[in-house]
């Protein structure tokens, strides 16, 4: 409930969402451009019949930096494409959600599998007004964010690292040496 019928704030509830106003949040483009993006992305851009080459061109037109040979499948939800960078030969699978209220940088030869979430946005739970705290997400070259995995705000996934299926990466994941360079019998810490 909101408004006068909601009653007074309860003393046992810390969060006061009525005090959240969103002021000072920079979305990187005007309201008009954001509305145009919502219209384009919601109507044709992420439909199965819309060609990948055209999808990449539209993302670039809205400010995304996308390298050569990238594949962005249908049903991918990108909040603010002007905060998105993809390296060369990177795949973004069906149903991926990129909440890029801060920059999301994805390296080259990266696979972001179906249903994964990259979330460069959060809130400060220590304050009653619950202000936004948006921090970049970085995915290193050769990394794999597997099916249904989530990478949270401020996290860096190192070169060749893997975020396992369904895993929530709340802290940085270190780089991994390619298997071809490891000694026989050597294994990763993870």
The outline comes out as globular
* Portion of residues within helices: 10-25%
Number of domains: 1
Could you name the ranges where pLDDT drops below 50 across 5 or more consecutive residues? none
Our count of helices gives 2
CATH topology: UDP N-Acetylglucosamine Acyltransferase, domain 1
Structural class: alpha/beta
CATH class: Mainly Beta
**Strand order, biggest sheet?**
1-4-7-10-13
Describe the structure.
This protein is an alpha/beta fold. It has one domain (29-175): Hexapeptide repeat proteins (UDP N-Acetylglucosamine Acyltransferase, domain 1), CATH 2.160.10.10. It is 13% helix and 18% strand. The chain is built from 2 helices and 15 strands. The chain has helices at residues 31-45, 52-61, and strands spanning 65-66, 71-72, 77-78, 84-86, 91-92, 97-99, 104-106, 111-112, 117-119, 137-139, 144-145, 150-151, 156-157, 162-163, 168-169. The strands form 3 sheets. Strands 1-4-7-10-13 form a 5-stranded parallel β-sheet, with helices on one face. The radius of gyration is 19 Å and the shape is globular. One of its GO terms (cellular component) is cytosol. Belongs to the transferase hexapeptide repeat family. This is Putative colanic acid biosynthesis acetyltransferase.
């Amino acid at each position: 409930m909101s408004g006068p019928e909601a009653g007074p704030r309860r003393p046992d509830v810390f969060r006061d969402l009525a005090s959240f106003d969103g002021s000072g949040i920079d979305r990187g483009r005007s309201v008009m451009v954001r509305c145009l993006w919502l219209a384009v992305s919601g109507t044709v851009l992420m439909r199965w019949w819309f060609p990948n080459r055209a999808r990449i061109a539209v993302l670039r037109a809205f400010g995304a930096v996308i390298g050569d040979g990238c594949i962005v499948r249908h049903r991918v939800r990108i909040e603010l494409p002007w905060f998105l960078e993809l390296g060369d030969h990177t795949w973004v699978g069906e149903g991926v959600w990129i909440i890029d209220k801060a920059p999301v940088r994805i390296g080259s030869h990266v696979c972001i599998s179906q249903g994964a979430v990259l979330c460069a946005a959060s809130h400060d739970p220590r304050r009653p007004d619950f202000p936004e705290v948006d921090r970049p997400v970085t995915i290193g070259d050769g990394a794999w964010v597997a099916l249904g995995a989530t990478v949270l705000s401020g996290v860096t996934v190192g070169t060749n690292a893997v975020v396992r299926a369904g895993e929530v990466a709340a802290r940085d994941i270190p780089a991994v040496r390619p298997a071809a360079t490891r000694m026989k019998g050597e294994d990763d810490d993870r």
